Amino acid sequence: MRVQNFFLTLVHRLIVLLLTLIVVAEVAHAKPPKSGDMNKFTENNPSIESPSTPFIDPSGKEVTLHEFKNNWTLLNFWATWCAPCISELPSLAKLESKINNPKFKLLLISIDRSGPKVFQPFLKRLGLTSLKSGSDPKASLMRELGLTGIPTTLLISPTGKVVGKLVGTAKWDTPSAVELVNFYLRN
Q1: If residue 110 lies in a helix (H) or strand (E), which one and from where to where?
Q2: Which of the chain's ends, N or C, has fewer CB atoms near its CB within 10 Å?
Q3: Domain 34-186: what homologous superfamily?
């Protein structure tokens, strides 16, 4: 009887281990959920390292993307003269309020040549004061990332890797956008 119990316990543990390995393998190979505008999100496989090209952060300090490590960062390149960029700004502000995770940061980077003196009053006029924008007036960072147009939004991992991008406008406050961002926050 003791031997039989031992083997049953061993078989039970092996089954639990096997099921755990299957679940872990599935999660490791899981693809992010994509629907609606999020179908335009393309993953970099493998992820690419963030460049060390400097830009101006919202406080006016010169920084690089490496200073945003330890957080998931949604980085949106935009300009005040770009109508599609302007149309998606309210949904980006709403996304930020829907993602309740301290490891998530939303950062806009304006490529307006006149920098903050142009885009800060512009965001204020639109009532989007919760959005924080940095500045890349010569589009150096944008070029270094190989981006050719705006709006373009990148998702950067806590290790500084660009895991994917969405070129063009998107409705960032939809359930599918929230689900996509939360997928990466959980992994």
Answers
A1: strand 104-110
A2: N
A3: Glutaredoxin (3.40.30.10)
pLDDT, tens digit, for every residue of 15-27?
654 445 444 444 4
- Give 43's strand partners: 164
- Give the C-alpha separation, 141 to 23, whole Å: 39
Give me the residue spans of the domains in the chain.
Answer: 1-30, 34-186
Contact 63, 52 (CB under 8 A): no
Structure tokens at 71: 């957080």
Tens digits of residue pLDDT in 15-67: 654 445 444 444 444 788 888 999 999 999 888 999 999 999 999 999 999 99
Q: Is 145 exposed, middle or buried (0-12, 13-18, 19+ CB in 10 A)?
A: buried
At residue 67, the 3 state secondary structure works out as helix
Its pTM stands at 0.82
- Contact between 106 and 94 under an 8 Å Cβ cutoff? The reply is no
- CA distances to 28, 62, 174 from 86, rounded to whole Å, are 36, 25, 17
Structure tokens that stand for 108 in this block: 């806009």
